[in-house]
Every structure is written in structure tokens, then in C-alpha cells.
Amino acid sequence: VAVMTILERNRAGYQDDWEYCEWIGLALALVGEEEDAIAWIERSVRLGSYDLEILDNVRELDPLRADPRFEAALALVRGRAREIIQLAAFAGYR
CA dist 8 to 5, 35, 62, Å? Predict the structure, then answer.
């Protein structure tokens, strides 16, 4: 209940920022709100998230991993992360 109250009170300040949306998804996953967690993670990905480290490795997201929506979001982020690495290599960064 407290998480949802905070979300509603401050929604305008973070709903258009992929990183905040990702953190909200993580917080909701921590309190067992899986449907809402996936919705916020999907929103984060739509807004441009490339944070593969959190989506791929954070244990608290494990309950979401079987959901095809989470897997689709993760696949999109994996693709973005690969593109960033390729562009950096092309630019001469190692």
C-alpha cells in the first residue's frame, strides 16, 4: 500500500524517465506486485532503457522471468546493449 501511495503521489515526476520506471518496477517486484512490476519495466524499456545489468542479474526480478512480457523487454534491452558495445568498439573504445 505504501509503495502504491508513493507512486501515485509522485507519478508526474518520474513516469517519463526510463531509469525511474525501472526502479519502480523493481520496487513493485520486491513487494510481490508482479503485474504492475512488469508494466513499469515495459514502460522503462519503451522509454529507452539499456540497463541490462539490472534486468538480467537482479534476483528480485526472478519471479518475473517466466513471463513472456518480461522476456520480450529483456530481449530488447539485450539488443540495445549489444548495439552500444558495437558502436563503442567502432568508435575505437575498448
Answer: 5, 16, 25
Label residues 7-19 b or e (16+ Cβ within 10 Å = b).
beeeeeeeeebbe
Q: pTM of the prediction?
A: 0.78
pLDDT at position 3 is: 66
Q: Among 52, 23, 46, which residue's Cα sits nearest to residue 6?
A: 23
Closest CA to 56 of 92, 81, 39, 19: 81
DSSP state, residue 62: G
Q: What is the C-alpha to C-alpha distance for residues 7 and 31, in angstroms, rounded to an integer?
A: 13
C-alpha Rg value of the chain to the nearest Å: 14
Strand ranges (DSSP E) for 27-92? none
pLDDT of residue 16: 82
Please tell me the distance from the alpha carbon of residue 9 to that of residue 67, in angstroms, as a whole number.
Answer: 28
